[in-house]
Amino acid sequence: MSLRLGKNIALISAAALVLAACSKDQEFVETSPAPEQEPVVTDTTNNDGGRPDTVNTAELTAEQLLSAGTFDAFEEFSGADRVLFAYDSSELSSTARGILAKQAEWLNRNRSVRIRIEGHCDERGTREYNLALGDRRATAVKNYLVALGVPATRMDTISYGKERPVVPGDFAKNRRGEVKFR
After folding, report:
1. Which residues neighbour 119 within 8 Å (Cβ) at sequence distance 6 or greater?
2. Which of 103, 41, 50 is nearest to 74 (CA)?
3. Apex CA 42: angle with CA 40 and CA 46, to 5°?
4. Residue by residue, what is the 3-state secondary structure of 11-26?
C-alpha cells in the first residue's frame, strides 16, 4: 500500500508541476499555499520479496507504521526491538510483555516478515551456562509471540550467551531477547 501511496503522490506532484509551469499567472503560483500531503515514504526495494528497506518513520501515523513492512517501522511501532530480563531469569516482565504485544500486532499485520530471536546474557557466568540461559530467553520471547498469534514457522531462535554484549560492562542492557529480520 505504501508503494501505491508513493506513486499517487508522485503523480499528483508531477501534475502540479506541469500546471504550474504552464500557468502565466506567476503571482498565483507564488502566493497560493502548498496543498497538504500525506508523509512521503522512502521506498528502496530490496531483493527479498520487494519489501521496502527504509521508511521515514518520523512522520508516519500508527496505522501507516503498522502497514509498513520495514524494520524501522517495526521498531517505531512496537517501541523497541528487544526486551530485557532480570538477572539469571528468562521470565518476561510486564514491560517486556507490553513490547511483545506491540511486536505481535505488527508481525500479524506484516505476514511476509520472518524474524530471528536472539537470546543474550551479561558477561557473568560460564559460556555454557549463558548459552543455555540465552536459549531460554529467546524461547520465552518466541513462545509469547506464538501465544499472541504469530506463527512459529516465521521465527527462529538463537542464543549468543555472553558473546555479544550490546554495552560491555552494563549487565542490565546485555540481558535481552532481541528481534532481527531474516
Report:
1. 133, 134, 135, 136, 137, 138, 139, 141, 157, 158, 159, 160, 161, 177
2. 103
3. 150
4. HHHHHHHHHHHHCCCH
> How far from 139 is each of 116, 154, 159, 170, CA to CA, in Å?
11, 14, 9, 23
Where does a domain end: 14, 33, 61?
Answer: 61
Residues 90 and 175 in one domain: yes
Strand partners, 119: 159, 177
Interval 47-91: pLDDT, tens: 444 444 454 556 667 777 777 778 988 998 899 999 999 999 999
Domain membership of residue 7 (yes or no) is: yes
Provide the number of structural domains found in the chain.
Answer: 2
Region 16-20: what's the mean pLDDT? 40
pTM beyond 0.70? no
**Buried-exposed string 89-111: b where 16+ CB fall within 10 A, e elsewhere:** ebebeeebeebbebbbbbbeebe
Contacts of 153 (CB under 8 A, 6+ apart): none
